[in-house]
Amino acid sequence: MSSTVGENLRLTLFGQSHSPAVGMTLEGVPAGIALDTGKISSFLARRAPGRSPLSTSRREADLPEFLGGLCDGVTCGAPLTAIIRNTDIRPGDYSLFGKIPRPGHADYTGAVKYGGAGDPSGGGHFSGRLTAPLCIAGAVCLQMLEREGITVRSHLFSLGGIADSGDITKDELCPDFPVLDPERGRLMREAIEAARAEGDSVGGAAECAVLGLPAGLGDPIFGGMENRVASVVFGIPAVKGIEFGAGFSVASMRGSESNDAFARDGDRVITKTNNCGGILGGITDGMPLVFRAAFKPTPSIGRVQKTLDISSMSETDLSIPGRHDPCVVIRALPAVESAAAFAVLDALLGRKKEL
Amino acid sequence: MSSTVGENLRLTLFGQSHSPAVGMTLEGVPAGIALDTGKISSFLARRAPGRSPLSTSRREADLPEFLGGLCDGVTCGAPLTAIIRNTDIRPGDYSLFGKIPRPGHADYTGAVKYGGAGDPSGGGHFSGRLTAPLCIAGAVCLQMLEREGITVRSHLFSLGGIADSGDITKDELCPDFPVLDPERGRLMREAIEAARAEGDSVGGAAECAVLGLPAGLGDPIFGGMENRVASVVFGIPAVKGIEFGAGFSVASMRGSESNDAFARDGDRVITKTNNCGGILGGITDGMPLVFRAAFKPTPSIGRVQKTLDISSMSETDLSIPGRHDPCVVIRALPAVESAAAFAVLDALLGRKKEL
Amino acid sequence: MSSTVGENLRLTLFGQSHSPAVGMTLEGVPAGIALDTGKISSFLARRAPGRSPLSTSRREADLPEFLGGLCDGVTCGAPLTAIIRNTDIRPGDYSLFGKIPRPGHADYTGAVKYGGAGDPSGGGHFSGRLTAPLCIAGAVCLQMLEREGITVRSHLFSLGGIADSGDITKDELCPDFPVLDPERGRLMREAIEAARAEGDSVGGAAECAVLGLPAGLGDPIFGGMENRVASVVFGIPAVKGIEFGAGFSVASMRGSESNDAFARDGDRVITKTNNCGGILGGITDGMPLVFRAAFKPTPSIGRVQKTLDISSMSETDLSIPGRHDPCVVIRALPAVESAAAFAVLDALLGRKKEL
Amino acid sequence: MSSTVGENLRLTLFGQSHSPAVGMTLEGVPAGIALDTGKISSFLARRAPGRSPLSTSRREADLPEFLGGLCDGVTCGAPLTAIIRNTDIRPGDYSLFGKIPRPGHADYTGAVKYGGAGDPSGGGHFSGRLTAPLCIAGAVCLQMLEREGITVRSHLFSLGGIADSGDITKDELCPDFPVLDPERGRLMREAIEAARAEGDSVGGAAECAVLGLPAGLGDPIFGGMENRVASVVFGIPAVKGIEFGAGFSVASMRGSESNDAFARDGDRVITKTNNCGGILGGITDGMPLVFRAAFKPTPSIGRVQKTLDISSMSETDLSIPGRHDPCVVIRALPAVESAAAFAVLDALLGRKKEL
User: Fold this and answer.
1) Sheet with strand D80-85: strands edge to edge
2) Of A31, A136, B43, B166, whose CB neighbour count within 10 A is largest?
3) How big is the CA angle at D6 (ends D2 and D12), to the nearest 5 degrees?
4) Closest listed residue to residue C3, CA positions, set A76, A312, A170
5) CA separation for the pair D33, A254 (Å, rounded)
6) Contact state of D68 with B19 under an 8 Å Cβ cutoff
7) What is the mean pLDDT of chain D?
8) Residues of C whose CB is below 8 A from A28
9) What 3-state class would DSSP assign to A33?
10) Model pTM greater than 0.90?
């Protein structure tokens, strides 16, 4: 169904942008895991709006309340449910968009799907706001992965046409902006500011790596790591593409070039290159699992756009009032990491289904 | 699980490359649909090996036998199961690869996952052979979609670095090669022949469009059309990336450029551009659903490659004997169409879950 | 997984007896249904403790708060999530039972399953408290079924060895006690009082009927109405058996006796008897769907019981302090109706999956 | 969906009574398990018709052919698929029943569900024939359970009103008839013969015990062992009730009587009685898991019955020609054991999902 994903670990997201709360239920979490709620809050802070001059002005504390599944901070085996109250709700802002759909948003498709009964406020259940509970789940998964020696990291692979440089599996992230190369980061920030100044927005791509994975995770065919990661990553609004390892560039390669030669590193089996992104036949090979996700530019822009008044079927101009986040990719990075962490932990728990 | 996908329609693939048969079960097919088995066979013929000098020499008739779910050629509501016998089985060819894994194949990851008990012959359950039952399912889904006025088409978006030109939503396919531009097709064939002559292989990308879709299909978050299509498409071996609409190029766009303006075409709501690939918020908007999938080059190549002998942990040279298919993308096109057809029909059946 | 059930409609329960809240998420609810929250509260009041001298003294208002899925009281298609705060929490009462498990409770099995990390307070996630969110879901489903002309009713089929008399598909329920025959109800109440006076408890059986069902709901084999109803009903604590129609008595019948003869009633197809409980081959036949569920006596009793101190592996006496509900069946009736309503609505939504 | 069940292990049944074959796919079977196909055939022989004068005259060899998932008799981790050809097909026998539905069969409900397009022959996908592939799956699961020291056994708890005596968890089964008490078995056989002589049939109940189970299997709420076992057992045609441990008799007990006192047996935790059937809170407690399933009498009887001609809506007499199995319970015992074995193995594999 729409709001649930996972096989051994099952995540359900609920709530809408302007409903009383958003939240998540994570079933299948093993009992006895002490969760560091401070780390969960820090992780959530990375996606919170209002923290930087570069993003939207909506400010919310985003402190999760755990309603079940925790006893004195330790998981008890029951479903883990946490919510975040929506405190900054202005439903009145959105009534117009049922009639005059915003380009690039789900206003029109939601209206068709729900026969006009959908929740138009702030995008309803389609809202980027739902990445907050995704990040709660992600923060929980990341803590469990850490116990297994598995870490997840991401950076802005590109933004507004400017590519980062460096190797996400090895290089350090800059302290103040999620890039590997500070000069590229500076250019990206300029691109964001330029777009904002023109009432416009920019797209970008996130790159994410999972390090420390054992070989043998995942399943053939529809249970491959690519399928699993993609199933979750496309749950993040604005993602229009995903690629693993060398990704789309494999289409231009020869086999002799794209095949990753097996080799040894001490007593470990490695590959000399990692064009496959750590996945062969859907199964991890022990190398870093690397993928990239493409984000379209924020569809909410201040510039006047053409759209259709559905009620009169006449074309009209639309100017979306208010301040907008000119680039969602930065705040989406923890959501991307969350998606990866969830998919990997799900596969890891599944690996233990043996006699 | 690994070999099952779908929500309202559930597809299970079974069999291995060299087991007695491969097959599929499709649950949730409505009763009373007359299936044209001739069209199913024709569709399967498009992926069959041995039909052209450009592909592998393994020749199999690939005529499906329906074991259940059909009464006098009409679906009866019971699970639809069909199998294809594996007649050209040479398990002896593959015993080596458990010890000396082929680069780019699942030999190593399968060995780790199954503790050495996996089926190494011909890739086992990881084999491209499993796209044959996927195509049976696809052929069935396509016939049901046609009754709803929905069609699916695909072409080689690129191959060996050569891009096709044209618009898959509008232009005609060439009669003898699945491209829109015959000159580009000629160049692609040359690239394949060149790779074959050097004992090498080439990658490529498939582009697929679903036409005639109503608006309102799909679900928010994890039930979006992107998630659904990706979940199936990554079940096709060698796929390393998928993108919808403008795909990765949205990462370099401004919002004013990527937003598709709503407009009217008679009494229909359309968008003037289709950067979103017919999907907004995971839901179809009534425009063509367009996506591309990147295929890595066939990993089986005649050229000598470096790999590791796992038993001795020593690096070694590997030369894979036999004739190989230098490009899997051509034969994969019906599998891509099948994945799209399955995902769309699944969503379409789900739309009818109303009171 | 443990806390989720359903196919077209998916219900997840979360929370523990003494966690901050219990709640439920119901996915797949069609958009545009106006919910009467007053009726939901009235329905919940039927299961609430503390309403009668016959049940436990724990008193909670049990007013659900909807966190998502509702807009101005109308479903919007997003997952419907509601919670009830746990206001009367005394976790200290239960610390003992991890070491000295109460007979008939999940103290021991939970401790084994969760390696000692489970939540022992009040039964944790195993608690009868979880029937509160089940009843929220049930109340929502019942309102949707009512729009389709389908109603659900139940009575105490037996309690403490005293059988009710009458026909639940036709007769009126007594106003003050959920039986058809007031004299049998009086005897049942006496049985409860007698057990309470002795620090003991009584078991009972609930009978439930779903009226107004169309023929054709459900699926063959594992998707039969029996499977669907049983999957949910066994989610109610203390249920140890379920039977449909004539149930276990069919085992002593001849075929000529148990077969329900088809007949007509005006232009409707009916059966002259209903030994099959309205289900043939797993599919509804248009007659009332009738089933009974057996409830064991409340395991918490004041009388001294034998048990084992797990820490020392020595047998010991246990006396469970506090007031206990000497019969859970009465309060379980709305949970049984909820289970039936959920299973039927799930099947009904599935029936609409057609082209 | 209708024909699939399971969580960690997933079973799909396919085929109809008179389709080319019936079969099953079992996903999630660990790799590296050597299967004894002779034992599978012997197990299947227990449910095969035509083996005794007491059952139907349809004779089929029922030798399964494994199409995938096995390499040299050892599971390879791929889905395990096996089929049995239907060799004794007489579809002509059943054309009448679409118009004049047989009482107690799914003729009418199937016709409504599938809009007349269902497969009426021999009950189609509703047929008891589908217990053959269920038994293949069961035989496979039983072999895996045996490796864990877990065994499953069953007997005729009652038949035609005659109860067996003895304790299925301890006593030996008779060699020639599946009862514990040979004298009761003799009476049961007489009851069957008497029914046959009158063109009638008898019902019965099966009792099944799973021995050697560890404590801690299963999950709370909807994942309890009762839910899991019931979900599969109701997939066997003709089952109208299921009860665990003391079952429906708990409804007449006091808590002090039904509560099973914990005690020790050496260093094992046991209970002195087993009214809970080895399940507390849905989780196994290490005692035998015991349940009973009620089977209605074979609905196909030679005696003239009343039914309705749907085409004319007039009541009519129906006499079902041919020889019929006057009691399905005997042949259903391996199906009941299969259901138990599947549910237990599924839970066992799920227990291993830990970090």
Assistant:
1) D4-5, D10-15, D21-27, D80-85, D65-68
2) A136
3) 50
4) A76
5) 39
6) yes
7) 92
8) 1
9) coil
10) yes
